């Protein structure tokens, strides 16, 4: 296998992995969404995030298809199982919304890093035509990470206020 063939193989594996990451993001948000209803701004933003993740997943499918392949059902199943186990760790608790938001902030950092790595892999694999799509997804993740960090204090304050009235 030549270096460029190996780079392409690594890149395609990265695309499949990221597709699984987006699938897990969707599943996690959908599982937690009802418990965010007392925080209308967060709830609305996370509903938007589901749509954005589905759009990013479709972009990844388009890129994979352009290279004559598709997402791996096995990887998605494993990612889903891992996500379900992670969800059990954050079983409903009084401060669940705070814990979930902190976990989401960490997850966003992971996604931004993943897209940045995919951009590097695409260039190494000679898939320069894919870079714009990957950069778009990366910038969307960066924007959401910034929103989460900027709104964290307000959500914590709302949580404290809700707790005081109980």
Automatic annotation (TrEMBL):
SUPFAM superfamilies in alphabetical order: Ferritin-like
InterPro entries recorded: DUF892_YciF-like, Ferritin-like, Ferritin-like_SF
The protein's name in its UniProt record: DUF892 family protein
Species for this entry: Siccirubricoccus deserti
